Please model this.
Amino acid sequence: MKIKPPQTTSVISLNFDCMLQGKEFINKVYFDYLIDFDWIDPHRAQFYRCSNPIPLIKLNGSLDQGICENCGRLHLYYPFRYRTFYKNKACTKQQCGGRVTPFIVIPHGKYGEKINSLWNVAKNHLKEADKVTVIGYSFPEYDKDVIKLFQDSLNTNVRIEVVDKCRDNQKKEQTEYFRKRYRGLFPDIKQSIENHNTGRI
Model:
């Protein structure tokens, strides 16, 4: 079996948290958000995009990304885990003085136009993928934009692998549910849907 290098993998995330990014500094696995930030915290810059980073496409933004409410300047901070981080954060642009808030993009939110290009990048990565692993995400019906993104992007020969948590006595039922669910979402996919139900993720 040929093992591909990590850099041939892309990660598409709908989570706001920074748990994955925190592993950068421990395991020396680095990520690239594929966004051109206007300012990057010096403590983050030494890690960000170094050593052949893995694309981490966060379609709804991230808690370590900030945006100036006045000029729209994008900031990248060191990953943090406390609620008061953005208190009194000011824009780094001279003579702006705007307040920086978390760059969290709720679907159809006011900053949606700033992240549209990232959705196009995700579409291109999905089109080129020969295997897509979905972890802990069930494509809920209300998430229409994400469903459309995958439906418009995946090629018919792609392999889909689903990883989700499940109790031991429900594995058979859940496996059948996911197969039907994914067949309904992606009827043109030729490969069988691989399903892995575990006790935890």
Summary: DSSP finds five helices and ten strands in the chain.
